[in-house]
Amino acid sequence: MTTAKETGQGLSAVADLARRLLPAEGVITDRARLRTYECDGLAHYRVTPALVVLPEDARQLAAVVKACADHQVPFVARGSGTGLSGGALPHAEGVLIVTSRMRAITAVRREDQRAVVEPGVINLDVTKAATPDGYYYAPDPSSQQICSIGGNVAENSGGAHCLKYGFTTTHVLGADFVTAQGETVPLGSDAPDSPGYDLLGAVVGSEGTLGIVTSATVRLVRLPEEVRTILVGFESTDQAGAATSAIIAAGVVPAAIEMMDALAIEAAEAAVRCNYPDGAGAVLVIELDGASIEVEQEYADVERLCNENGAFEQRLATDPADRALIWKGRKSAFAAVGRISPDYIVQDGVIPRTALPEVLRAIADLSSSSGVRVANVFHAGDGNLHPLVLFDDSEEGAGDAAEKVSGAILDLCIQHGGSITGEHGVGMDKSKYMPRMYNDEDLDTMQLVRCAFDPDNISNPGKVFPTPRLCGEVPGRHKGTHPLQEAGLAEVF
Amino acid sequence: MSAATIDRTAREAVASACADVHGAGESDHVDGITPGLVALPEDTAQVAEVMRAAAAHGLTVVPRGRGTKMSWAMPPDSADVLLDVSRLDQVLDHQAGDLIVVCQTGARLSDVQAVVGEAGQRLALEETVTGASIGGTLAANTSGARRVATGSARDLLIGITVVRADGVVAKAGGRVVKNVAGYDLGKLMIGSAGTLAVISEATFRLHPVPVTHRWVTAPVADPARAQDLVQSVLHAQAVPSAIEVEWVDGNGSVSVLLEGREEGVAGRTATVRSLLGDTSVETVDAPAGGVTYPWDLRASGDQRHTALKLTFALSGLASVLSSATEAGVSLRGSAGAGVAYAAIPPGTSADAVKIAVDRLRSACTTHGGSAVVVDAPASVKAEVDVWGPIRALDLMRRVKDQFDPDHRLAPGRFVGGI
Lengths: 493, 418
Prior knowledge:
Chain A folds into 5 domains: about 5-100, Uridine Diphospho-n-acetylenolpyruvylglucosamine Reductase, domain 2, CATH 3.30.43.10; about 105-220, Uridine Diphospho-n-acetylenolpyruvylglucosamine Reductase, domain 3 (2-Layer Sandwich); about 225-340, CATH 3.30.70.2190; about 340-435, CATH 3.30.70.2740; about 440-480, no CATH class. Chain A is built from 18 helices and 19 strands. Chain A has helices at about 5-20, 30-35, 60-70, 125-130, 150-155, 160-165, 170, 200-205, 235-250, 260-270, 290-310, 320-330, 335, 355-370, 400-415, 435, 440-455, 485; strands spanning about 25-30, 50-55, 75-80, 95-100, 105-110, 115, 135, 170-180, 185-190, 210-220, 220, 225-235, 255-260, 280-290, 315, 345, 350, 375-380, 385-390. In chain A, strands 12, 13, 14, 15, 16, 17, 18 and 19 form an 8-stranded antiparallel β-sheet that branches. Chain A has a 5-stranded antiparallel β-sheet with strand order 5-6-10-8-9. In chain A, strands 1-2-4-3 form a 4-stranded mixed β-sheet. Chain A is globular, with a radius of gyration of 24 Å. The two termini of chain A are about 30 Å apart. Chain B is α+β, with helices and mostly antiparallel strands. At the A-B interface, strand 8, strand 9, helix 8, helix 9 and helix 11 of A face strand 9, helix 7, strand 11, helix 8 and helix 9 of B.
């Protein structure tokens, strides 16, 4: 165990090294300035880091990690800090390594359908760099104007369009990776199926607990010939859910199907005046893309299926401004809820799509029995729910009540065979729920990966897993003598 | 280790783990290695029992699905127990509305397709080797032509149950497509050749079967032309499901598969035909030669081709084709995905194979890829570096040591002697 004194000495050593390697503004030790990094997008967890460094390149970053490893100082990587699970919450006795100065788009290679980017690059900037060549970067979290690729890689971020195009993990083909011991290793490559274990597959979505990606080679996707965005108003979420199922059952794979309920619509209207259909109990935002002829046909199917399931209004965006306004309502929904409630919890559960009506009714029951309002915004196509649990923290007990409803929603997701997180990550916020989804053996097995990559448990410790055993420690249930050994039939080697 | 050296207590321990345990026959050999015992568990719990017995008695274990690719990769250093999962052959659940299927890994890929096909759906993994199991398909990470559109196993597997080397059963992922809770163990298992754990169940996302399809094929006589055609299709907006190349003796063809609705496919076929030129032809069936591996899958022993999997950045196609011509090998594969397969005829001397492999490997690595000998006669495997350079090998060893500290599972079969 490291003592407090040793920790202090270790931190000083890391700070000294950082000062030698980085420009002065890249090393922050001043208390007031450290506090600007005390939280990520999940602001109710706050920890002031002991040291913040902002490396300018991979070499500096690796050197800082190496120093952390040498002195057993924990470190946390942070991109833009937009994460919603506290994954980039600093460690009080550790170093926060911020990648926001590593913003080079190193290459855009149309001929290979690849771009190479540093971790601090903003998601949308990859698309902007590729668009002149007719390409884009497909994963599109709602925060894509500010979130970084490094954060996306850590969280395996999704977005509205991953229904058709897949998540970050499908779109990251290679990476330069700094292990928790400070070694730089290349993972994956420009080409698919690198021989050996798919370590990159394990790293993407590991929430910074295995090491830090300093460069990512990402897939660029050809822009579709045609995109159609349709806004459909329904009287109820049941109808909208049924329409969603009917569309999928018809073999249509839309680029996105998003749903918002009445409360979420009300919030979006108040915030961005998106002009959604009056009196709608639910809206669907459906986007079709691909070759023009097929989009035309799919549109006819979607229009019919929505009507058959009770749509009272359908609007096809006729120009980019229309399309942008429809999406603005959806993508601003989280922040918009601030207009109708002083505080709220963004939940991120997943259910099988067919369980949607049942789960929505159960959420409504939870809401009415607890008196806690819940606005629903979600990726209906893949069953990823973002219930927004509203509360006023100034009222006594309101926060606890909201937290309870929020947890109960996750239990609903697990009961229906779903997941506690579809795209926001486990981070600090949901590690306590992991044992509800996975048993000890599952979590133990995941821990094997951690021990291979980060045996000292210094890379973003305390995230994702509730109370990980130490590497090398034999899990509890294996303690004592094996029955075969007892019977004299075997020896432990 | 041969059958004779497994002592009686160890043998009895394995026999008590599942009902069917017997000695190895001719068909149970693993690339020339004779297993001591063959165990056929009936479910995940029995797989775990076998692994626990093997762990208690220090036995090595080589997993087998349907045994269609047992000669692939390197022969194991030892195979005390051949753990055959072919009786775990059930499709456990197909939720058509959610586009997912849960199956045991001894199930044949074709059987899974038959079940999901009834609902107009498919698992977008092609049966590249007839009769292949789900488990073997994952362990060998095989993929077919359609990977251009729907990716490979890593893009389709959403949940997995494995039995570890110590007999502990663990799962990761789940039954929903979107899920970022915990580490993605499935990705580590894909392509791991049975060296990390025994995969007993797998859950996949499914895709709707398109209404119709067309192939457009054009002859090409030089590598640069082949690359130009492939690039023109990639940069068009024709949404191809496959872009294949065939290359024999400095000549070949480029083929494009279009799938979807009738009118859409007709329109996109016209687009692609205009790109591929006047000599292009439109067919319903896959082009002559098909989209299978260019080697003889039925051959065994010294009659096998030296079979290679080549990968490269998309712009490396012309140079890979040129290297194939220089090496005198035929090649076929997914030009639109940067994956191709090459075959060197049986009877070629190990030295000559080595020269050809080096030439292909040099072209592939120049373009960010690799050339791996998937299968070859024993004499070739003994002489040729089948894997080529492996990046991050130390980290891979550390993963192996965590999952299987005693190197019980398929020892020696994988990269770097893992």
